[in-house]
Specification:
single chain; 210 residues; alpha+beta; ECO RV Endonuclease, Chain A; six-stranded mixed beta sheet; three-stranded antiparallel beta sheet; globular
Length: 210
């Protein structure tokens, strides 16, 4: 059975829309979550909603389940009841992709010992002023690479004595994943638009309503 996400990467009209609209929408997300010129952590949640909205646009709201617990360690949404993880990374290098957010080193080690890929992945590589892209990495590819290189090489634990922000997917694993047959890619030129918008305007307008 063909995974429905393949349709997203084979529909030329959707591909063009993603290439044209995703940088603009992600820029809006950054503006709305910025303070004193710095992008806040909440931008990640907004980016996730933008990708979920893309799935709803393409496949219909009735086929996209967003009612997943926030404590779910991996899946962010279900498409036709298939769990999907949504990841975003900024920069040229595909490194620093979080599998779990934790500042507890013991929990990080426990996570590594118990982890096994459990859902398909959508990855957005944001690279302002250059090329990045939208990737689809099937679960079967994740399991293949996980078993091929082993969990110690697949998962990057935070260095001892540092202030860790989470457990990461290793850069070696990520490179293998995106280059493996069956993984999909839509190239995106991350050009910024001239946007004059206040992050508070929408909320001010809502306050004005009777």
């Amino acid at each position: 059975m063909t995974h429905p996400l393949n349709q997203l990467f084979e529909d030329q009209s959707i591909i063009i829309k993603i290439q044209n609209r995703l940088p603009y929408l992600f820029q809006l997300a950054e503006i709305e979550s910025s303070r004193a010129g710095r992008t806040g952590m909440e931008a990640g949640s907004t980016r996730e909603k933008i990708i979920i909205a893309l799935l709803i646009y393409k496949f219909g709201e009735e086929n996209v389940d967003t009612n997943l617990p926030i404590t779910n360690p991996e899946a962010d949404v279900k498409l036709f009841n298939i769990p999907i993880s949504i990841k975003t990374i900024t920069g040229k290098r595909l490194s620093g992709i979080k599998l779990i957010w934790t500042v507890d080193s013991q929990k990080a080690q426990e996570f590594q010992r118990g982890y096994r890929p459990s859902c398909d992945m959508i990855l957005v590589q944001i690279n302002w002023g250059d090329r990045g892209g939208l990737f689809y990495i099937p679960l079967v590819n994740q399991i293949d690479i996980f078993e091929e290189i082993g969990r110690e090489n697949y998962i990057k634990l935070p260095k001892a004595g540092t202030n860790p922000r989470g457990v990461e997917l290793s850069q070696d694993a990520m490179i293998r994943l995106i280059n493996k047959s069956g993984s999909k890619y839509i190239p995106i030129e991350w050009k910024k638009h001239s946007i004059n918008i206040s992050p508070y305007k929408r909320w001010v307008e809502l306050w004005k309503e009777d």
